[in-house]
Design brief:
The chain has 15 helices and five strands. By secondary structure, it is mainly alpha-helical. It has one domain. The strands form two sheets. A three-stranded antiparallel beta sheet has the order 1-5-4. The protein has a two-stranded antiparallel sheet with strand order 2-3.
Length: 393
Amino acid sequence: MDKTLFLGQAKILAKSKSFKVDDTWDTFNHIYMFNLMVILGAIVTLQQYNGKTISCNGFTKYDSDFHEDYCWTQGLYTTAEAYNLAQINLPYPGIIPEDVPCLGVNGEGCGMGEDVTTRVYHLWYQWVPFYFWISAIAYAMPYLVYKKFGFSDLKPVMAMFHNFLPDDAECKDKEVEKASVWLYNKLSVLRQKGAGTARVQMGIGVISVKIVYLIMPILQLVLTSHMFELADYTKFGTTWLSEYNLPLLELNQTGIKDVLFPKMVACEIKRWGPSGLEEENGMCVLAPNVINQYFFLITWWALMILLTTNSLNILLSIVRLLFTYGSYQRMISHACMKHKEQYKQVFDEVGVSGRLILTLLCNNIPAEYFRDMMDNVCPRLLKRRETEEETGL
């Protein structure tokens, strides 16, 4: 094999890449958010399943392996009434013996023997790795479905321009001609008034995916809030900022990080023993929450950014689809084309779907090939229109 030919083929293979059918704003969802969830999920998974996750004390009837596994699987809890109290009365926020007088909000007793304690079980910690992995998959799926089924007939056309040598002029002309025939037939259908929904079908698909991207962070915020019972996760970031410089200990307030992510929890073990049903209470250190609180804080800020960018993206996309001038200028600028009236006429006549097809071709194939296709297709389309107008068809 000729050395030059071999190197040229290797160069083409090295430059092979997937086709981009989304805009920069969408990459925040299916690339950056996906990668963030994967990174956090990997760290949490290694931490939770490759080391000691809790350490318990206060149990005298059971060995350490039994009571730590029991507490981890059966659920660790805190007491709802034991928050926002003077720290001098508590071993840790949320932890209080159930047989002592109620301290109340102001530390006032409420009588011996009254059942005033409410247990809140923190079972979500068992599912934290799955939370991040499922979130990562959820952010990747809309784009994959959109790319797979929304542009099935367009991808082979773009692929042709990545499978031949740039210096092979004869091959280039043949591929440009094939693509031009396909584009001519496609746009001929779309420019007809009888095309109906086909003229806007791709535009509806694009907006629908962007709406799904907007729903994703909203849904994640709501579902995450349901994981926690004692504080509102939807306000986690803003509440944390408001508490950052406040002397919470002096105000007898518990910070939101300690409410959502307790580092010290209580555990009660019940089992059958020699004397019948045996019960014993102890305390456990839930060390992973030291990291979890910051991971969920990062996730909260990422969700806020997504809510903002996705909302703006929907508005900008609608503007781009409805007002053609800006989209047309970006297309000819990207392809280094000089304005020709025939380009603008075709761009205006082919509807939303046609304009999206032209934009995607412009963004995914070399500029010179796109210019050749436009110079091939546009005059033929305009000539066909003139013929139809003369014949009354």
